[in-house]
Design brief:
Elements (H helix, E strand, L loop, with lengths): L5 E9 L3 H11 L3 E3 L14 H24 L14 E3 L1 H45 L17 E8 L5 H11 L6 E9 L2 E9 L3 H10 L13 H27 L5 H23 L1 E2 L3 E9 H14 L2 E6 L20 H8 L10 H16 L2 H17 L5 H24 L6 H9 L17 H29 L3 H24 L1 H7 L7 H21 L7 H13 L1 H10 L2 H20 L5 H39 L21 E3 L4
Parallel strand pairs: 3-10
Antiparallel strand pairs: 1-8, 1-9, 2-8, 4-6, 5-6, 7-8
Helix pairs in contact: 2-3, 2-7, 3-6, 3-7, 9-10, 10-12, 10-20, 10-21, 11-12, 14-15, 14-19, 14-20, 15-17, 17-18, 20-21
């Protein structure tokens, strides 16, 4: 339960030192710089949006250049490279990268220009290939397409948009031009949607022939040239060849820059961080000689930071506790076992005011519930081994990924524990293999019981875990209310529900019908059942008279109290939700058993062993993947809906300090 206490920082400094102060704050990365609404006394804000935009564009340009280099010289990455995280660099290396950033930016501009030439070359090739394709039907022609005739003749070179043969065209022209006797017609090529023709006539008949051709749908070619089509096609092919050669030379020039990738990525990180600094610079209030900065930082960091600032600069800085109307950011800080829960909590919502960090209280239940849903010792061991190897091998892994793998490591330990208790090792793999291939009966007995043989016991146990989970949530609510000195609310909203729900559960356990169904190994004494009924009645009466206490009208208060009492059905629904522990646990075991039996269908022998191995690997891989995902989703659901519903609202604002936020490298902390 660790929400880090925050302090509000207020800082006045000399204007000529503001960039140096911001550089130090960005390096330390502990202050979330806020925006003051207004500051009196001649203070104003500077417009740094243009400079910020230039820096962001420079960062984007460098990343675009690296993406271009990667396109032609992909960096070798393993399947698990996403676990490796960003490469670590020192602060000195980062600053050196900043000094070299302008040179790498020029390289990036050159690479982007080369990319444009490649794009233009591709477009040019497409255009030329289109022209080349349009010349194919004219290749039989030995005169240029631009030919219009001679001193005494007129030539018509063009096409019709439908297929037409030479005889048909001649007949159609003869019908339209009965007086024209000097006419030469040749169909050069014809296709279903195009027919290319050559028509020659005397110059005196040119206008009549042209009119007749147009009436038939004649159109001149889109591309003309002073060269015959065959020669023009050869020229186009030569031009395409030269463009492709130029493209290869450009690609080689791009490949020569592959060693500059890291430098360009470091420069991109540098410009991105500078852009963030200028964004903060634009939010500062400044007078001709002084600037003002406000924000929040963890209380534990405040004294050391102020001492360092005052030791290096001429300024006035002080911290104070946030006021009741302020909304300080939320930072969570937990230990090795509970820190993995932070991502689950933030995935729902960070704690609001007066709320505790639920990570610690939910961690134990989270791991237990996940393990019950998967509940196979072999699957759990695979998770433990895989997560342990990844955590040890990839030392520079991102913290968020490290916490997630640690969460699955603990979930794997829990899964192994429940698998041993339930006697599940790849389902019933061991007895199936022993009987099929060795004709022996070998089993590893369950340390507790087998859910497939006694599902009712697991169902009752699941409900018991659910009741404990819900009551723990109510206990957290009691703690939060008591911490705020709202003792009456703690009595009305927690204790009465404990009495009602707890009393009803004991009364239910004492009934003969439930004892027969659940096969309970114990009996609730009549006196205990009577006392539980009385306590449940007290809780019900208390809820009726206090659930609507905010209303002044006694009738409305009573009606709201009845409605509040109706929420007992919600508790019933919540408890029933924990039946998913049984459902998912049985699903894992049943599917594993099915795959084991399917693999053993061919019996022993070499063929049977090969078939069993293939089915085993594929089947259990699928079963494990699906059920790990199912356990993760449903465990989160039980936390978010049932558990958080009893005490947690969230609404906290995440802590986002002003820091050197890099995308490609991580700067090692200064000692």
């Amino acid at each position: 339960m660790a929400v880090v206490p925050m302090k509000r920082l207020e800082l006045y400094g000399l204007k000529n030192q503001r960039k140096a102060v911001l550089d130090l704050l960005q390096r330390r990365g502990v202050v979330e710089v806020g925006t003051a609404r207004s500051v009196e006394g001649g203070f104003s804000q500077s417009d740094t949006s243009q400079k910020q935009q230039e820096l962001e564009q420079a960062s984007a340009l460098l990343e675009q250049a690296v993406a271009l280099v990667n396109q032609y010289a992909p960096s070798k990455k393993g399947v698990l490279s996403f676990l490796a995280g960003r490469a670590p660099i020192s602060q000195e290396e980062y600053e050196t990268g900043g000094e070299n950033a302008p040179a790498f930016l020029e390289k990036a501009k050159g690479l982007v220009a080369l990319e444009k030439r490649l794009t233009d070359g591709d477009a040019q090739i497409l255009r030329l290939e289109g022209q080349l394709e349009s010349l194919q039907p004219w290749k039989a022609l030995d005169i240029p397409l631009s030919c219009k005739g001679t001193a005494t003749t007129q030539v018509f070179l063009g096409a019709f948009s439908q297929e037409i043969d030479e005889a048909t065209l001649k007949n159609q022209l003869a019908a339209r031009l009965p007086q024209v006797t000097r006419l030469e017609v040749e169909v050069l090529s014809h296709q279903p949607q195009q027919s290319c023709v050559f028509v020659l006539c005397h110059k005196d008949d040119g206008s009549q022939v042209g009119e007749a051709l147009r009436s038939l749908g004649f159109a001149y070619p889109a591309v003309t040239s002073p060269l015959p089509p065959a020669q023009q096609a050869a020229a186009l092919e030569e031009e395409i060849r030269k463009i492709r050669q130029e493209k290869e030379a450009i690609k080689q020039e791009i490949l020569e820059q592959k060693d500059a990738r890291e430098g360009m990525l470091l420069a991109a990180d540098y410009y991105r961080a500078q852009g963030e600094k200028y964004k903060v610079l634009g939010e500062l209030w400044q007078s001709p000689h002084v600037f003002y900065l406000t924000g929040y930082l963890p209380a534990a960091e405040s004294n050391a930071l102020i001492e360092e600032l005052q030791g290096r600069f001429t300024l006035l800085a002080e911290t104070a506790d946030p006021g009741p109307q302020e909304d300080p950011p939320v930072k969570l800080e937990n230990g090795f076992f509970t820190a993995p829960m932070e991502s689950v909590v933030s995935g729902y919502s960070l704690p609001g005011k007066h709320e505790i960090d639920p990570s610690a209280v939910m961690a134990f239940f989270y791991y237990i519930l996940f393990g019950m849903m998967l509940s196979d010792a072999a699957y759990g061991l695979l998770m433990v081994i895989g997560c342990s190897i990844a955590l040890k091998k990839f030392q520079n892994m991102e913290q968020s990924m490290r916490k997630m793998l640690r969460m699955f490591l603990f979930c794997g330990i829990s899964t192994t524990m429940w698998g041993v208790l339930f006697g599940s090792y790849f389902g019933d793999c061991i007895p199936v293999i022993a009987e099929t291939f060795f004709h022996q009966e070998i089993t590893i007995p369950a340390l507790w019981f087998e859910p497939l043989s006694d599902p009712m016991r697991l169902l009752i146990f699941s409900f018991g875990v659910g009741v404990l989970h819900l009551f723990t949530g109510l206990g957290v609510q009691f703690y939060q209310l008591a911490k705020q000195k709202k003792y009456a609310d703690a009595l009305y909203d927690v204790v009465f529900w404990y009495l009602l729900v707890g009393g009803l559960i004991v009364v239910l356990l004492s009934t003969e019908i439930f004892q027969n169904i659940a096969e309970l190994p114990f009996q609730v004494p009549g006196a205990v059942a009577t006392a539980a009924g009385v306590l449940a009645g007290i809780g019900a009466v208390g809820i009726v008279f206090t659930a609507g206490r905010e209303s002044r009208n006694p009738v409305k208060r009573f009606l709201k109290g009845l409605y509040g009492l109706y929420n007992v059905s919600g508790y019933l629904s919540d408890i029933l939700s924990y039946s998913r522990l049984l459902a998912l646990g049985l699903a894992t075991g049943v599917i594993s058993t099915v795959f084991n039996q399917l693999g053993a269908m061919l019996g022993g022998g070499v063929v049977g062993a090969i078939f069993f191995t293939v089915v085993f690997l594929i089947g259990h891989s699928m079963n494990m993947a699906i059920n790990v995902l199912g356990a993760y989703v449903h465990t989160n659901r039980l936390q978010f809906v049932e558990f958080f519903g009893k005490f947690y609202e969230g609404g906290g604002r995440p802590y986002t300090p002003f820091a050197t936020h890099t995308r490609h490298f991580q700067i090692k902390e200064e000692k």
